[in-house]
Amino acid sequence: MTRAFLALILASFFAFSTPVIAQEAPSAETEEAEKSQLRIRSEQVVALLNSEIEPEGIFTDGFLAAVPISQLAAISQQLTTQFGAAIAVEGLYPINETRAGLHIRLERAIAKGGIAIDPADDNRISELLFQEFEPVDDSPEKIEADLRALPGEVSALFAPVGGGPPLISVDPEKQMALGSTFKLYVLAALAQDVRKGGRSWNDVVALDTKSFPSGMMQDWPDGAPVTLHTLASLMISISDNTATDQLIKLVGKGRLDEILDASGHSAADLNEPFLTTRELFLLKGGDRARLSAYSAADAEVRAQILGGLEDNPPGAGQVARAFLSGPVAIDVEWFGSAKDLENLFQYMGSYADDTTYDILAINPSVPPPIRARWDYIGYKGGSEPGVLNLTWLLVDPKGKGHVLTLSWSNPEANIEQTTLELIAQRILSLPRD
Q: pTM score > 0.90 for this model?
């Protein structure tokens, strides 16, 4: 259920500390630079991406402590799966003798970033950062084919909010598990209450509801005074589950049912009764017979089961262990289609204030080059083992709103989060009118 930090994974591939990156080549690249240790190590990165050499001896011990060899191998495979084999160093732009901007050509993209070496450690690589993947010869058709090839079920939509031909469309009406992306409905309900004048973002409530991580507020003191703005900000920016459940208690589950209906959710009954994050964790981390009964029950029986969850509830350790072996009953979730999420953004546009959109934009989860292409980017994602959703609201320089939402579910196996995030970057890098 924790939100993926897309910017961290995409913009910090192999990142250990943060290098300064040359965005443009200097006016004169010398022959000496071509023969430098930076060049040698950069060419080894190409071989590493293609699994032709091992990372030992290439990276410093400090780098490998921060980015283990298994993680290097996984990310290399993800990148070459998305963009094809690494071909060559496309460009090396020295900043000094130990640091340079680095472009690597892959079959279907140019990876742009930077590299640094440590002369005191046999010129091993101490920093490696790719900030941008510029697709080469990519297309919506290729992206849709790659989405459909993923194991499990997939849905995707990249389209103008409120109508217009989509650029990407893969089963956009399919109901998919959303993970923490459901928190957009909580934000929508709160924003509507503020607009109606019944609440203010500055209202203070006592923290009296606790859930399980992700987040930080589960560790805050009972009764701590917090504003609605703080609760909403933590709910969206770091997917804080305790903040979410506090807001659900405040606005009421009935209001969330109203938002589902008013926004045009095509299968709102799938979310009856509307779960809090704590209820989901108690169900999946507790008695498996009860979980199976809940999965098979109608809304009325489900409500009765929820009423007994706090009788001898599992502890945090038991809940955490429940998710260690892979997906757990991903039919017990929050559900929505790509079109439902587009409809929600359109509905929110009729009443949400600037504060609502400021909160949604706290962590846009895209690397800087993509961020620069849009006037506004808001984001919420969600995941649990076997479930991943990534959803953006974007406004182009002409003031037109767009939605990009990707959902991937697989009840049989964990999902490679970076795989879907790289596809998202490919989509957001496509040319647009």
A: no
Q: How confident is the model at residue 433 (pLDDT cuts 50, 70, 90)?
A: low
| pLDDT tens digits along 125-178 | 999 988 888 888 889 999 999 999 999 999 999 999 998 999 999 999 999 999
Q: Which residue from 111, 86, 89 is spatially nearest to 29, judged by alpha carbons?
A: 89
CA distances from 129 to 80, 99, 101, 380 (A): 16, 11, 9, 25
What's the helix, strand, coil split of the chain in %, to 5?
Answer: 40, 20, 40
Q: For 79-110, how does the pLDDT look when each residue is reduced to its tens digit (9 = 90+)?
A: 998 889 999 999 999 999 999 999 999 988 89
Q: Residues 6 or more apart from 79 whose CB is under 8 A from it?
A: 13, 49, 106, 111, 133, 422
At residue 412, the pLDDT reads: 96
* Residue 35 pLDDT level (bands cut at 50, 70, 90): low
Give the per-residue SS3 of 323-367. CCCCCCCCCCCCEECHHHHHHHHHHHCCCCCHHHHHHHCCCCCCC
3-state SS, residue 78: helix
Does the bond joining 140 to the residue before it have cis omega, within 30 degrees of 0? no
User: Residue 419 carries which side chain, given as an amino acid letter?
Assistant: T
For the CA atoms of 117, 121, 123, 128, the dihedral, rounded to the nearest 10 degrees, stands at -30
pLDDT at 11 over 90: no
What is the b/e burial string over 315-327, where b = at least 16 CB atoms within 10 angstroms of the residue's CB? eeeebeebbeeeb
User: What count of other Cβ atoms lies within 10 Å of the Cβ of residue 410?
Assistant: 20
117 has which bridge partners? 125
- Between CA 188 and CA 263 the distance in angstroms is 10
Residues 207 and 217: beta-carbon distance below 8 Å: yes
Side-chain half-sphere of 30: how many Cα atoms within 13 Å?
Answer: 7
Tens of pLDDT, residue by residue over 230-248, are 999 999 999 999 999 999 9
Find out whether 292 and 303 touch, Cβ atoms under 8 Å: no
Q: Which of 191, 237, 185, 259 has the alpha carbon at shortest distance from 378?
A: 237
Region of residue 288 (left: phi > 0; alpha: psi -120 to 50; beta: else)? alpha
Domain at 138-433: CATH code: 3.40.710.10
Can you tell me which residue has the tokens 């697709």? Answer: 135
Find, among 298, 256, 250, 291, the residue nearest to 275 by Cα: 256
